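Curious: why this fold?
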Amino acid sequence: MKSRINRGMLASIVVFLVLLIDQIIKIAVKTNMRIGDDIVITDWFLIRFIENNGMAWGMELGSKLFLSVFRIIAVALIIYYIVKLVKAKADRRYIVLISMICAGAFGNIVDSLLYGQIFTESTPWSVATLTEFGHGYAAPLMGKVVDMFYFPIIDTMLPEWVPFWGGEHFIFFSPIFNFADASISVGVILILIFFRKELSKIED
C-alpha cells in the first residue's frame, strides 16, 4: 500500500519534529541548569550542560561568525538537494535521512542565531533566563550551541604498564553533544551504510 504522505510532506515533518525535540531539550537545559551541572541518569549516561562555539560534537573550525555563515550555506544547499530528491521521487527512506541531517544542522543554527538575543548568559554560578529580544548575551549569529548528552561508557585509570598513557585518566567516548548532533550523525551513518549508490549519483 502506498504511503498517503507525499515526499515533500514527509521531509517537512521530519525536519519539524527534529527541530522541535532539539529545541525543547536545549531550552529546558539552558533555563534549568548552570554550566557544568550534571544530572546523573546512570554511571555511563549523564546530562551535563556545556556550551560551545564550534560545530557538531563541540569541534572548532575558524571564527564563530564563519561557522554560523557556513552552517546557513550548508543548510540552504541541503534544502535545495531535498527539493530535487522530492521532485525526482527518490527513496523515502533516503529523503528522511537527508532531512534529519538538514534539521540537525538547522537546530544548531537556531542556537547561534537566536540564543544570544533572547537569553541571559549561562555561567557556572547562574542559570540563564529569557530576556527582552536583543538584550541577551551575544549578537545575532554569535550565540553558543547548547550541548548536554554525555556517555562516559568507560571512565577509569589506565594501568601503569600501558605504553605512553599508563597511569593516566581515560574516558571512552568523552564528547558531549545534543539532539541535533545525534540527528546529523545517525543520518550520515545510515546513508553511508544503506545509500552509498545515491551518494555516488551526486558526484556524477
Strands lie at 38-42, 45-52, 145-150, 154-157, 169-172, 176-177. The chain is about 50% helix and 15% strand. The two ends are 33 Å apart (CA to CA). The longest helix spans residues 92-118.
